[in-house]
Amino acid sequence: MTATLALTGSNLCGDAAFSAAVLSEGEVTVSSVPAGERGDLASLCRDLCASRDLRPEQLSRIVLDVGPGSYTGLRVAVTFVRLLQQYSSLEVEGVCSLALLARRAAEVAQAADAPVRTLLDARRGRWHTALHQHVDGTTLELEAARASKVGELLEVVDGQHVLAAPAAFADTLRREHGLDCLAVSGWSADALLLDGLPRFAAAPADLEPRYLMASYAED
User: How far is CA 109 from CA 75, 198, 210, in A?
Assistant: First the structure.
């Protein structure tokens, strides 16, 4: 018997510092750090696997949320997975937080197959953004994640796109910029296991966290 472990430390919607999910024998079990607590990722994963009677050697795959999101959470999660990679033959796949945000938005939007532009505060006068579309069970990346100046993004926001952001930021976008933005909440690691997400294989040297204030995606 083999199992898949999914991990997120981006805390994009403020739900939990860390969340983990395990898929084994067709059943998914989720565990998250209580809201407002810092928690310990290694203990969370240990206890989650123990609840399913899984031994470490039974894990064959990890799916990791690589951000953008919480600096501390992403750093801890990526370092944890890199360490596991060094001492095992685990297959590791990464998923961009904005793809997860778009997928959740597509599930609740009235125009479920419309392109979803996700927005996230990157600070320094920039927003993170990406464009996805959920078609026939697959979330397609139409535009890769980038961090752009606020003024430039406001000029290209398309009324045909569904706008989505974490709930707190969605309120800010509506209040300060008059944008009709879908508020997304309920962030947990089981979303990483959904079929049709744009995942990518990640070797230890390629596994990099996408911090909110980093320049990895600036245009």
Answer: 32, 20, 27
Closest among 141, 71, 62 to 100, alpha carbons compared: 141
Confidence class for position 213, pLDDT limits 50, 70, 90: low
User: What's the pLDDT tens digit per position in 126-146?
Assistant: 999 999 998 988 999 999 999
Q: Which residue type, as a one-letter code, is found at position 75?
A: R
DSSP state, residue 75: H
Q: Which element (helix H / strand E) includes 32? A: strand 27-32
Number of H helices, E strands in the chain: 5, 11
Query: Is residue 216 predicted with pLDDT exceeding 90?
Result: no
Residue 73 near residue 39 (C-beta atoms within 8 A): no
pTM for this entry: 0.91
Count of Cβ atoms closer than 10 Å to residue 110 Cβ: 7
Following CA atoms 67, 72, 77, 79 in sequence, which dihedral angle do they give, to the nearest 10 degrees?
A: 110
Phi, psi of 79, deg, nearest 5: -65, -40
User: Using omega within 30 degrees of 0 as the cis cutoff, is the peptide bond preceding 68 cis?
Assistant: yes
Phi, psi of 175 (to 5 degrees): -75, -45
